[in-house]
Every structure is written in structure tokens, then in C-alpha cells.
Amino acid sequence: MTHPGLNSGAPRPDAAAKAMGRARYCADVQLTGMLHGVIVPSPVSSGILSELDVSAAEAAPGVVAVLTASNLPGNNRIGLIFDDQPLLVTDRVRMAGDRIALIAATTPEAAQRAARLVKFIVDPLPGVHDVRRALDEKSPLVQEQGNLLKEFFVKRGAPQTCRDADIVLEDEFVIGGQEHAYLETQGTVAEPQPDGTWVLHSTTQCPFYIRGRVARFLGLPISAVRVRQTVTGGGFGGKEDYPDEPAMCAVALAKVTGRPVSLILPRGQDMQMSTKRHAMVVRHKLYANLDGRIRGVEIQVLVDAGAYGGLSTVVAERANISSVGPYDIEHVSVLTQVIYTNNLFGGPYRGFGAPQVAAAHEAQMDRLARTVGLDPFEIRRLNGVSAKHPEFTSGETLAQAHLYGQLLDRLEAESGWKREKAAIAASRDADPDVCEGIGLATIIYGVNLHWGGSRLDRGGAYVLIQADGTVNVAVGITEMGQGALAAMRTICAAALGIDETRVQITEVDTALVPDSGPTVASRATVSGGNAVVDAARQLNERLLPLAAGKLGRPGIDGVVCKGGVYSHPEAAGTVTFEEIVALLYGRRQNPGALGWFSAPDRVYDPATGQGSAYAFYTFGGHVVRVRVDRATGQVTVREVTAAHDVGRVIHGLSAEGQVHGGVVQGLGWALTEELKLDGGHLKNPGFTDYLIPTSMDIPEKINIIFLEEPEPQGPFGAKGLGEPTFISVGAATLNAVAHALGREVSCLPLTPERVVQLTRPEPEERP
Ligand code: MTE
């Protein structure tokens, strides 16, 4: 580990249990009398459910309940933002994976056997499978009100006045979706309580969402539903809103049977039904002068939402504002359209729409560099935000705009960019079958919720000091592998001045901590961490006067606690944290505190995309070095350099782990992960055919640069890191492959088949 950060080096609190196989995941929850639930899905993506007969399934051995839309014990309208989605199909089928029936049985096998006995017919209807055609007048309607769900805009300056620019670069980028590929599939164990309330054990990154939607489904008050997050084996955005759906299925079955129900999706179903990174088409026009200075951009982003709104509009809101990148451009027009299709269900995924649009804007930056004969770093320096030009796409002035230039400088130096480029140029024609390339991409990212969701940008933490001087912490943000618990523990220990090993912290229980909004947008460190700092501040207000008294000081000025020992520069002795805690308990003072954080209010105009879109931002960038085999189309990534403006590293090992994970996941999206659809039906719903990177595909070297200029709004100066580690990887890989092949590239993923096509003479065959 090269970046220790604020952390003392103590291992992550969740490390041992996970590494030793002792952690209890949702599928490990076993309750007395528990039944097993399964979903019967539609294989057809567009049609009418004309026949449904569940009698054979009901009569099957071990079956306790079968539910369809006609006997569902809850509100079948489950749309999260838009009222466009049923839990169970009533008549219209809109996506492959729509739920026809639910079954609860005494064993998982009995439930699966019964599922095969449900007889139903879905009469196919013409579907919409190309987002580019979905808004045509003759296109079939996925939802009765039309296929356009919502539009977002950036309107800045007058881009139409740039159309006479010396340089006009125009292209359509076709960017693929992505499966979250979390280790642990979606699921919930629903446990009805004797008093009519509910306890849910769920794998989730947003337990408060589940609680709210299940309460609404059952018509119960929020307080009657308690969600306990089980150890979560990866979320990556896929466990933001989607877990609510299997949770409601499990609850429905538990309600009619009066018994606990465990419903865990098999991998194939999970891949077909659950949300995916949105496939997008980005139409990008860039206007520039011959010196490389960009005059304006006109961008249209088509977001393939699938059949239901879900959180697609929230993702699109971020894609919209991210589609110009970290550049200071006077004239900008962005139109982002969220469009219904009968394809896979689009949803949140690490980066929230930013990686797709980054692929387009960063490819355009490189094309501009080539057109005017500048290096990719130079073109970004020329057009990037800076202390002199701190205005971003949304018109706001960035407080730390100067960091973008610093990030470029370090990325260029530490990736050995000039040396590598020269080496590639020198070996250009040495081997006709192999070509090498290097690519750069940079991004700006708002590390919190967009203005549109800012009402949820809050966080709570309860810090309780026990009588022996150990501490329990309960936070409302979730751990899903990224190291949030470790970061919270480090922050708590640093804020109280004690050793981390004294602090116990576990997954969220919604009955014990306030609704802290979703754990998304890389906001956990800031929102949870600030709440912990606030709780520690309140506790210190009680502890420090006691310590001052013991040290013989008249007031708390200069009294500090470090490593669990209070001292003052002018006091002869010291006093331990335990002693002061004993005093606190002896005086019957409150040993607990509820800390709170809420993001500042902001002003933003959604009609123009101008204003304060996010509370603050981070910059990031990647340099990717590739080798391309022309004959097989295989792209081997040799080295990646990642640079992130993190404010302050909190937990060094977790931060480095995030960079490694983001890079590898980004390379998977860029190179091998292809969702192969046949009329909305996923043809590769498993890891045999849907290829995520393995340990064999990890680049030989991943270099990490952390820029540490404290963010005033962050706990100990920290920003967030989880998503930026991913966002520019795809774009940099695209640019590296373009560099290697010596031609323009406008699509992702760059699977071997596509790369082979690209090695053929233009025109490029579009996917
Ligand atoms: N890392 C792991 N190991 N597992 C995950 O599920 N989710 C990502 C990222 N890194 C994820 C992860 C996503 S989508 C987000 S928003 C951030 O972590 C959330 O955590 P943070 O706010 O602590 O960065």
C-alpha cells in the first residue's frame, strides 16, 4: 500500500469475515419455517398475456402459494418515479423477464419444478429494439403515452453560431450497456412479525428505498417495515432501486403464507430481469478553430431506458450535464432523451451515465487533437477548465478548477506518456500483425446527488460510546464492497482521537439510523463521513471539558486526544480515553450522539441546465496502453495510469482497491462485456458467454495518482472516489485502440469481432 491516508493501517472491519467465508449473505439467512420463492418470467419482450393457468403449479408437491396479478396481496403499481410498472403482469408484457407469477414452496427445487408447470401464453406484439427508431411516428408504443419518457437540456450561449467553424467534427457513438456482475445475485428474505410489522434481510445499497416501496406496496407506515442490509456482495448501482422488486415479491409470498420467504434470483434470471448500464447513442458535433480552441458543441444523447422508467431519468440527468466533460466551452447545446424500448431495463451503474457520454466527448477531443496536430494532453490543456477559465458546462464557477491542470501534468509525467508514445511510433510497422496504442481520457464528476435529487442528499450516523471506552457506530450509508465501513470507522476514530480497533461498525438497519438517502453518486464518504464527524463533535463537547478538568486546564483550548490519550502542551500528565469515558458514565451524561449532514441548497434551472448542478466536483483521468492483435481482434491492456483528485485519502487500501476495481470493471465494459440481445431477450445470461475480466486479464501495471487538496465540504477534506475510478477507463481505452489502429472508433465495447471489422478498410461497419 502506498497511500495510507488517514487510516492507521488497521485492516478493514469486514475483511476477515469475507476472506474466511464467514460473512453471512442474504442467501445464508435461514429462518424457522422459511419458504423459498421463485419468479415465473415472460420469455417474450412485447406481447399480451392471453392465457394463464397456475392450477398444476398449485397442486405440485411442496407448493404453498402461487400468486398472479389477480390475487396479489399488495399494490401492483410499483413504478418508482413514474406510474408505468406492475409487479406482476396484468395483460401487457413489455420486457423479457416481466413477472407472470410468483411461487412459494418448501424447498428451492420444489419451487423451481412448480414454476415449470405454470401454463401461459404471451401473444407477441411488434417491439421496439433500436433506440434510434423508437421515436419514429410508426414505431410501436412501449407505453401508451408514447416512447419519449423525458428530456434534459443544456442551453448555453448560441451553438448555432458556430456552424461556420473551421473545424466541424461530427459522429454518432454507439455505446453498449453493461451487466453489474455482482458476486451475489439479487434477493431478500422477508420475515413477517407477529405484530403485523415486517423485517426484511436484503442485499442492497439502498435499504431505505426498499423500506419505502415495501411499505407503499403493503399500505403500511414506514415504521412498520424494517430493512436489515445483509453483507452485500457488490452493488455497483444495480442494487440501488432494483432490489425493491424481489423484496416486494418475497413480501407478497410471505404475506399470503404467513411464513418467512427467501427469494434469491438465479443468475440467469437476474441478468435478464435486473437493471443494466444504459446502452446509449450519442450524436456529437464539435466546432473548433484551427488553433484547437473549441467554439461550441451540439450533442444529442439517446438513452435506452427499456420498458419502464425506473431511475433512468435520474441517470440521464447526470449524463446530460456530464456530456461536455471538464472543458470550458462557450456555446453548448445538449439534448438528452430518455426513451422507452422493449430492451433490457436500464438503471444506475457506476458512473451514472457519465462513462457513456465520456466515451463520445473524449473521442472527439482526440480527433480534434489529430486534426490540428496537437498532443491529446495539449488539446485538453487548451480547452480544459483552469484557474483562469473556471466555468463549467452548467455555467458555475468551479472552486478547484486549477486541479484539472495539475491532474493532467501528473498523469502525463507518471504514465510516461511522451516516452511511450515515442516508443509506439518507433515500433509502428515492426510487426504487421500487432499494433500498439496509448489513449487518454479525463472527466469531471459531481460527487453527490444532482440538484434534481438534492432533497435526498443527507446522511445520519449514531455514535455510541460504551462504558469501557469502545464505540459502536451505526450509519445510514451502505457497504457493498467499496470500503464504506472502513472509511466511516477511520473517520470516527480520527474525530474522537482513538484507535480504530475500538470502533465497531456494521451494515445498515433502517430502524436504528435515519434515512440517509441512497448510497450512490460516490457520496458515502462525504455524507456518511460528515455525519460521523458531526456526532463526534457533539461527543467531544462532552468529553473534552472532562479531560481538561483532569489535566488541570481551565478550558478545552489546546486539549487533544490522540491514540486514545488526552494531553495538553502545558499539562504535565495525560489521561486516557477510558478514564474520561468512565467519568462521563459516572456523571450519567449522554454517551451517544446522532450526527447529521445535509448538502447545501443550490440553484439550478433544469430548462437550461445552468446553475449549480452539484455541491462540488472531482476530476479524474486514465491513460491506457494497449496492444491490438489485428488478426484476432484481441486487445491486451498492458498498463493503466489512473489519476484522481480525492481531496484526502481516508482509507488507503480501500482507495487503492477502488482504483483497481474501477479500472478492471471499466476494461470489461470497454472490451469484452457485450449484452447480446435477440428481440429484447438476453442471449448470454451467464458468465460463460458474458465475459467479465478474470485475474488473467488484469493489466501488468496499474499506477495510481491521488491528488490531495482538501475539499472544504468533505470530512477531513475527503471527496468521493468510487465511480470516477471507472468513468474514463472506457473512453481512454477507445482512444488507445483508435491510436493503435490509426483510425476513428465510435463504439463500445471493442470486442474482438468489432476490432477485426475495424481493421478492415473504411467505412466502418456500425453495430
Ligand atoms: N466497489 C465495490 N467493491 N462494490 C460496489 O458495489 N459500487 C460503486 C463504487 N465502488 C461498488 C464499488 C458505486 S456504483 C458507487 S456509487 C460507489 O462505490 C459508492 O460508494 P462510495 O460512495 O463509498 O464511493
Low-confidence stretches: none
Number of strands: 31
- The radius of gyration computed from the alpha-carbon positions, rounded to a whole number of angstroms, is 27 Å
> Please, what is the average pLDDT?
97
| Total of helices | 17
Strand content: 15-25%
CATH superfamily of the largest domain: Aldehyde oxidase/xanthine dehydrogenase, molybdopterin binding domain
Ions and ligands:
ligand MTE
> What structural class is derived from the secondary structure elements?
alpha+beta
Strand order of the largest sheet: 3-5-1-12-9-10-11
CATH class of the largest domain: Alpha Beta
Largest sheet, strands/sense/barrel: 7 strands, mixed
| Anisotropy-based shape | globular
Spatial gap, N to C terminus: 42 Å
State the CATH architecture of the largest domain: 2-Layer Sandwich
* Count of discrete structural domains: 3
CATH topology of the largest domain: Aldehyde Oxidoreductase, domain 4
Describe this structure in words.
The strands form eight sheets. A seven-stranded mixed beta sheet has the order 3-5-1-12-9-10-11, with helices on both faces. It has three domains: 17-125 and 183-234 and 239-273, Alpha-Beta Complex (Aldehyde Oxidoreductase, domain 3), CATH 3.90.1170; 280-450 and 605-759, Aldehyde Oxidoreductase, domain 4, CATH 3.30.365; 458-598, Aldehyde oxidase/xanthine dehydrogenase, molybdopterin binding domain (Aldehyde Oxidoreductase, domain 4, 2-Layer Sandwich). It contains 17 helices and 31 strands. By secondary structure, it is of the alpha+beta class. Strand 28 and strand 29 form a beta hairpin. Helix content is 27%, strand content 25%. The protein binds ligand MTE.
